[in-house]
Amino acid sequence: MVKVLLVGEAAREHAIAEAICRSNYDPKLYAVMRLRNPGIDSLCKVTGGEVALGNSQDPKFVVETAKKFHVDFVFVGPEEPLFRGTADELEKEGIPCIGAKRGPAELEMSKAFMRRLMWKYRIPGRLRFKAFKNVEDAIAYIHEYAESVALKPARQAGGKGVKVIADLQAYLTSEKTHVKREHAKAIHEKYMKDYRDIDDRILIEERVEGPEYTLQAFTDGRTVKPLPLVQDNKNAFEMDIGPETGGMGSIAGKGMFLPFITEEEYRKSVEIVKNCVRAVEKETGEKYKGIVSGQMMCTASWGPTIIEFYSRLGDPEAVNVLPILKTDMIEICEAIIDEKLNKIKLKFENVATVVKCVAPKGYPEERNLAKGHPLHVDVDMVKKLGCKVYFASTDLQPDGKIISGGSRLVEIFGKGKTIPEASRKVEACIPYVWLEDGWGVFHRSDIGSEQLLEKRIEQANLIRAVYKYRARKGLIGKTIEWIPKKGKIIIET
């Protein structure tokens, strides 16, 4: 019997737990959680394991729990435990970990580190950027250069604080400069205020457009094994409007690609991720072992382009692919630990999948309002309709009630022959999720719909035409700038 300790309590971890428990090796599942996720709690009980409630971000607590339960290895779901050195501390105690050590995990933790790495090793899909250690220098740069930019916290901050500003009309330049300046201040004062583990504070990147997608992969530091491509939908409301969230739902399949990403673009994306894994080892001296995910965009500049990296599976993206994973998860984990991932063949059910998140009103900007509400989910009815429930930010109480934790409540997974078919199945399940005290919930009904899919395909075709033209002209990875009194200059990037 294999004993596994899972770290984390979101829907991503519920999907990881389920994949582990499907193994033929009769695993016993244990979990470290801050909130008692009902789905993970149930799987622990069914397999004869236990739940340890506590600070899942604290490496010391994770190590103590792993030793207490005498587990064979630990699987870390979220990013923050990795940033704080959980994998490093476990290794010191001789406990294997599926999750990157602190050095390699900087690929996600520091967006400035990631950008510098890609430039140093000349990895395709890189963007022009400036990183600032203080807000005054960032504001000075903003006032000097009128550009369309993406303003970001220089550190991974839970997906919060990113603002893309198109500065295209000369008569609005002063207004756009004001917006950039105020957001730079917000990054410094709000989104980065709790983080002192990197020097850089604010990142300013060139603005790019195109369809986004996520390439998730297992890696043992030598081999990278990609999972099917997934597209997450970040905006809170229909047709991509509203504030950015951790993700309101995602689509995948059939097969390894998305309907708007070609096989050639997929292969280039895989190569970019592989190059970054190799570059991280050169830079840190440590193998990248665990999960690596490229949050990508197909742009006019490069085609496949890196927006940011994850040192873990995405959420909700993990929920699209893990339920259809046919390869034994324990075998995958052991191959990562032993650096024999090259011997594993990943197999997936050949279906399209859609995930839709149901969130309480108040999310994502007023999470305190979204907390503390009793949740009702008719799991049996969702199953009867051909879908699955994965519990997210929820807390199972001693009396059996489930209370909202302030973020997304559940993620509902459905599969079908096509993405729209899977979307319709999931949509039929939405009425079976509500908050018992009458507090409102919301979701995005358009995720996976024909209308939104056509929008993605149209956007991809337009971008593809431009980057293919640039490739024919030898302009991939180059920027054309107009310099006063000098004229047109081609800048190598």
Key terms:
single chain, 493 residues, alpha+beta, Rossmann fold, Dna Ligase, domain 1, D-amino Acid Aminotransferase, Chain A, domain 1, five-stranded parallel beta sheet, globular
How is this structure best described in words?
By secondary structure, the chain is of the alpha+beta class. It folds into three domains: 3-101, Rossmann fold (3-Layer(aba) Sandwich); 128-206, Dna Ligase, domain 1, CATH 3.30.1490.20; 212-442, D-amino Acid Aminotransferase, Chain A, domain 1 (2-Layer Sandwich), CATH 3.30.470.20. Helices cover 33% and strands 27% of the residues. The protein has 16 helices and 27 strands. Strands 12, 15, 18, 20, 23 and 25 form a six-stranded antiparallel β-sheet that branches. Strands 3-2-1-4-5 form a five-stranded parallel β-sheet, sandwiched between helices. β2 (28-33), α2 (38-47) and β3 form a beta-alpha-beta unit. α3 (59-69) packs across α5 and α8 packs antiparallel against α9 (173-191). The model has no long low-confidence stretch (mean pLDDT 94).
**Spatial extent as radius of gyration:** 22 Å
Q: Whole-number average pLDDT?
A: 94
**Helix count, per DSSP?**
16
Strand content: 25-35%
Task: Give a quick precis of the structure.
This protein has 493 residues and is of the alpha+beta class. The strands form 7 sheets. Strands 12, 15, 18, 20, 23 and 25 form a 6-stranded antiparallel beta sheet that branches. It has a 5-stranded parallel beta sheet with strand order 3-2-1-4-5, with helices on both faces. The chain has a 4-stranded antiparallel beta sheet with strand order 6-9-7-8, with helices on both faces. Helix 1 (11-21) packs parallel to helix 2 (38-47), helix 3 (59-69) packs across helix 5 and helix 8 packs antiparallel against helix 9 (173-191).
